């Protein structure tokens, strides 16, 4: 097997000829308000200055489903199954139509959240974890997952000082508290617990998100730089172990 | 990997716990399954049963995405499969489980086996699609209307004269001619249906005969399943 051949969590996309993926897939994970977008915005121009072609993607931005998801959320008619499946469809659409083509063309793809967020949410909503993971069996294993870790006490002032507490990010659909504040705290506590478990399961690179923005960015650049250099070396001499091999070895279930 | 031992397949083989009955029909387009099911519907109502009907790909939740995806040819085999799964689980939650819990007879025009046949013919992994639908309850009666391609083609073309894009598998680029593409794609679907029939024990109805002959055979099977279920009218009277 070629070192840059696509690796999937499960059964993959059997009908699709993918071939060599020259680019790198970098995922930034973490709960809402933790600073993922800020870090993505800082990482992108740096990589471009280094000479890489960069593209970024985020959840529910697919051409096919963005409107449907917004509409369904407004109507509050989703349950855990349809919620999971809609996100999976959105993810598949972006994977096949944006992420894989960009990787084939040699771009660095920065994904602001990936299927792990779906796992965390599905777990909190009570979906069968085995089912969630099999559902995303078509997902490509990223080269690097950077996890911005925070505790709920540090998260609360950030969210209140930012865009405020949102219905869905507060888990109001789960009726977890008497008001939005209580609900937010309970929901985010559970969500963060799931992210932490996923970090162990899928070997994320965990970064303390309570640090100053520049400090976090420096850690991210160091990790990303190391990955891209390793890939370059591997392009010349095949067979160097990268983080992707580690992730691929982790069981999807 | 053996499909027989998959946990997903096992779950679909266990009877559901609800007091109602779930009767579903499967088959390619032009197999006559919808005609037969609507005759059963009318008959059961006249017998006094409380009947609820639901059909594949009819939920409002994904209508827009489906229309958009089909019109612009944006769907891949995976997104095609997942959108149909959203439709199915939306209907399962709101339209199939509640009437089953309420002791009604639920009639479904197409069920999970449609996904197992069509999505796999499009190239998704058979094991994956079974896992996706693994939470679905097993029908009390699943009828498969088996029909040769040429008969189904003749029925469709004599009626609405035009084959639908995805029904003909045009998205797979098998042939530029819709009729030829339909033949190639639906032949795949047919052969997969045959193996599903064995895997999940669907009851085969030879769908070439006269409508009333088929209906008599279908009613006999329905009657057997409804044994012990009291029609509302009779129960009240």
Describe the overall structure.
The complex is a heterodimer of chains A (253) and B (237). Chain A has helices spanning 36-49, 66-75, 80-104, 115-125, 129-135, 152-161, 180-201, 213-236, 243-249; strands at 24-29, 54-58, 108-112, 144-149, 205-208. Chain A is α/β, with parallel strands linked by helices. Chain A has a five-stranded parallel β-sheet, sandwiched between helices. Chain A is globular, with a radius of gyration of 18 Å. Chain A starts with 23 loop residues before the first strand and ends with a helix. Chain B has helices at residues 7-11, 33-46, 63-71, 77-101, 112-122, 126-132, 149-159, 178-200, 211-226, 232-236; strands at residues 21-26, 51-55, 105-109, 141-146, 203-206. Chains A and B meet through helix 2, helix 3 and helix 5 of A and helix 3, helix 4 and helix 6 of B.
> How widely separated are the two ends of chain B?
54 Å
Tell me the strand order in the biggest sheet of chain A.
2-3-1-4-5
Trace the largest sheet of chain B across and list its strands.
2-3-1-4-5
Largest sheet entry of chain B: 5 strands, parallel
**Can you tell me the overall shape of chain B?**
globular
The chain-level structural class of chain A is alpha/beta
Poorly predicted residue ranges of chain A:
239-253
Helical proportion of chain B, percent range: 40-55%
Structure described in brief:
The complex is a heterodimer of chains A (253) and B (237). Chain A is α/β, with parallel strands linked by helices.
What's the helix and strand layout?
The complex is a heterodimer of chains A (253) and B (237).
Chain A: E1 24-29, H1 36-49, E2 54-58, H2 66-75, H3 80-104, E3 108-112, H4 115-125, H5 129-135, E4 144-149, H6 152-161, H7 180-201, E5 205-208, H8 213-236, H9 243-249
Parallel strand pairs in A: 1-3, 1-4, 2-3, 4-5
Chain B: H1 7-11, E1 21-26, H2 33-46, E2 51-55, H3 63-71, H4 77-101, E3 105-109, H5 112-122, H6 126-132, E4 141-146, H7 149-159, H8 178-200, E5 203-206, H9 211-226, H10 232-236
Parallel strand pairs in B: 1-3, 1-4, 2-3, 4-5
Helix pairs in contact in B: 2-9, 4-5, 5-8
């Amino acid at each position: 097997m070629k070192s840059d051949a696509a690796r999937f969590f499960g059964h993959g996309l059997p009908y699709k000829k993918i071939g060599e993926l020259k680019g790198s897939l970098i995922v930034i994970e973490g709960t809402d308000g933790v600073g993922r977008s800020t870090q993505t915005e800082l990482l992108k121009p740096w990589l471009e200055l280094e000479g890489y072609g960069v593209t970024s993607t985020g959840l529910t931005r697919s051409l096919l489903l963005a409107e449907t998801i917004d509409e369904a959320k407004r109507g509050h008619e989703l349950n855990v199954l349809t919620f999971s499946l809609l996100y999976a469809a959105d993810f598949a659409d972006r994977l096949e139509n944006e992420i894989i083509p960009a990787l084939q063309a040699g771009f660095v793809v920065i994904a602001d959240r990936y299927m792990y967020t779906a796992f965390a949410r599905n777990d909190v909503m009570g979906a069968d974890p085995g089912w969630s993971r099999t559902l995303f069996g078509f997902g490509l294993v990223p080269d690097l997952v950077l996890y911005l870790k925070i505790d709920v006490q540090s998260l609360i002032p950030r969210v209140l000082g930012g865009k405020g507490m949102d219905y869905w990010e507060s888990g109001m659909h789960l009726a977890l508290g008497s008001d939005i504040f209580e609900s937010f705290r309970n929901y985010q506590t559970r969500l963060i617990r799931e992210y932490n478990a996923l970090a162990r399961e899928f070997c994320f690179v965990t970064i303390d998100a309570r640090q100053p923005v520049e400090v976090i960015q420096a850690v991210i650049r160091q990790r990303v730089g190391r990955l891209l250099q390793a890939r370059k070396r591997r392009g010349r001499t095949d067979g160097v172990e990268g983080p992707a091999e580690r992730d691929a070895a982790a069981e999807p279930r | 990997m053996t499909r027989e031992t998959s946990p997903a397949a096992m779950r679909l083989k266990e009877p559901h716990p609800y007091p109602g009955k779930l009767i579903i029909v499967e088959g390619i387009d032009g197999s006559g399954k919808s005609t037969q099911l609507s005759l059963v519907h009318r008959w059961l109502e006249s017998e006094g049963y409380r009947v609820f009907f639901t059909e594949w790909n009819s939920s409002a939740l994904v209508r827009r995405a489906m229309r958009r995806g089909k019109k612009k040819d944006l769907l891949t085999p995976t997104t095609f499969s997942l959108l149909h799964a959203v439709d199915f689980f939306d209907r399962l939650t709101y339209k199939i489980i509640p009437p089953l819990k309420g002791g009604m007879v639920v009639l479904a025009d197409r069920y999970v086996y449609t996904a197992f046949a069509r999505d796999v013919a499009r190239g998704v992994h058979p094991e994956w699609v079974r896992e996706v639908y693994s939470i679905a309850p097993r029908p009390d009666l699943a009828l498969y209307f088996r029909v040769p391609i040429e008969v189904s083609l003749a029925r469709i073309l004599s009626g609405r004269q035009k084959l639908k894009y995805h029904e003909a598998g045009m998205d797979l680029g098998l042939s530029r001619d819709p009729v030829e593409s339909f033949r190639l794609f639906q032949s795949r679907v047919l052969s997969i249906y045959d193996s599903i029939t064995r895997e999940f024990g669907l009851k085969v109805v030879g769908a070439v005969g006269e409508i009333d002959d088929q209906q008599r055979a279908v009613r006999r099977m329905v009657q057997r399943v409804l044994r012990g279920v009291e029609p509302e009218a009779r129960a009240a009277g």
